[in-house]
């Protein structure tokens, strides 16, 4: 279980996260919804150790404290982030990008079988393993980013706006693949503007507004919630 308790984050005077409480179990898919600037990326970055939360914040994985640890230790403990914008190395090949994901000690054993799993999940990457990442389409680059994160053998995979800039058919394919990742027992935490698609694979969701969690429910209930439909699904 990944448990976030009273997580607050400041950028200077700006309170980007205000006492956020959230939990996700292994094998569960949780979606975080909210308007631009609500703090969704900041939440994922806090969990990943990329920004430092305010004292008193608590982030724990299976009871072990993650708060304040550097990013590489958090990967080592089993939590990986696919950042917004993907963060892959364009002048490296697909395979080199994947191998970079396996630097964690926890990932060294079983590296080749995990690579085979990533290539099975994304057959396009297998065909293009020697291609430079910056010559690939947006959807393929997103596959590289997800593949690289999976190479670290995560218990929890966090994705920040994975569908951003992708054509609808590519988004559908991507979420079908995430469903398969989820079936392997990995917990997924997804920040996503594409609310309908993401809730369709999720168990639960949280609503964020101005740095706070303002709602929490099952994915099914959220899809039926008139406020969610108005705010995110373009319904009246
Ligand atoms: P988006 O979907 O637009 O990325 P978000 O919900 O992910 O939005 P965050 O990116 O977490 O929101 O930003 C939350 C708030 O913190 C915003 O008001 C943003 O302007 C501010 N913020 C984010 N990063 C920084 C930073 N490095 N320095 C100062 N303020 C920041």
UniProtKB/TrEMBL annotation:
An example Gene Ontology molecular-function term: branched-chain amino acid transmembrane transporter activity
Matching Pfam families: ABC_tran
Domain named ABC transporter: residues: 2-235
Domain of life: Bacteria
InterPro entries recorded: AAA+_ATPase (IPR003593), ABC_transporter-like_ATP-bd (IPR003439), ABC_transporter-like_CS (IPR017871), BCAA_Transport_ATP-bd_LivF (IPR052156), P-loop_NTPase (IPR027417)
Keywords: Amino-acid transport, ATP-binding, Nucleotide-binding, Transport
GO annotation (BP), single: L-amino acid transport
Keyword ATP-binding: yes
Coiled-coil segments: none
Family the UniProt entry places it in: Belongs to the ABC transporter superfamily.
Record's protein name: ABC transporter ATP-binding protein
